[in-house]
Write a structure and sequence with these properties.
202 residues; alpha+beta; Protein Transport Mog1p, Chain A; seven-stranded antiparallel β-sheet; four-stranded antiparallel β-sheet; 3 helices; 13 strands; 24% helix
Amino acid sequence: MNKKFFIAIIFILFLIIGGVFWWWQIQETPPEEWEKAKYSKPEDYVVKETPEGKIIENKKTGLSFRIPEGWRMEKSTFGRSGLALYSQDAVEERTVLMKSGCRITFETIYVNVSIETLQEVKQNLSVFPAEKYEIIKVGNYEGLKGVISDLELNLYGIDVSVPVRDFLGRGKLDSFILVTNFDDKERCIQEFENFLETISIK
C-alpha cells in the first residue's frame, strides 16, 4: 500500500512539474525582451535548385520559400537574418530605403506572441508604424500584414509577420518585409504577393 501511495505521489509531482513547465513555455514573451531573443542566422538558410526554381530552406525553423525568378539573395545589413532578396534592378539608398527595385527581407525570431499583441507592439513601438493592418493567411497560418507608406521618404513597404506555436507551445515569429519606392510600387507588390504564395511553414 505504501509503495502504491509513493508511486502516486511521484506521478502527481511529475504532472505538476510538467504543467508548470508547459505553462512557462506558452507565456508570451514581453516585447522588451524581443531584442534579446534568439533568431535565425545566415548559415541556417540553404538554397536548393528545383524544377520549380530556386528554393530557400531553413530546416531549423521549418521555413521554406521560392526566390522570385531573376532575383538574387545577398547579405544585407537590414534585418536580423543578415540576408535579403533583391530584384534585378534593386539599388539601396541609405540602407533602409530603395532607390529602385524591390527588396524582401526575412527572419525568424524565437518569441511567443499572439496576433493581438503583435499588432499592438507594431503600432506602438515600430519606427515606421503601418497605416493599416489586416490578418491574412501565409503558409496555412494567420499572419499580420501592415502597409507602410511615406511620400516624403519615397518609402513604400509591406510587413507580414506570422506567429507560430508548436505542439509544446514553443513559439517563433516569421517575418517578411517588402521595401520599395513609389515608382516601383505596383510591380513590387505583385512580386511580393506571388512570393507569399510560395511560403511553407512547419
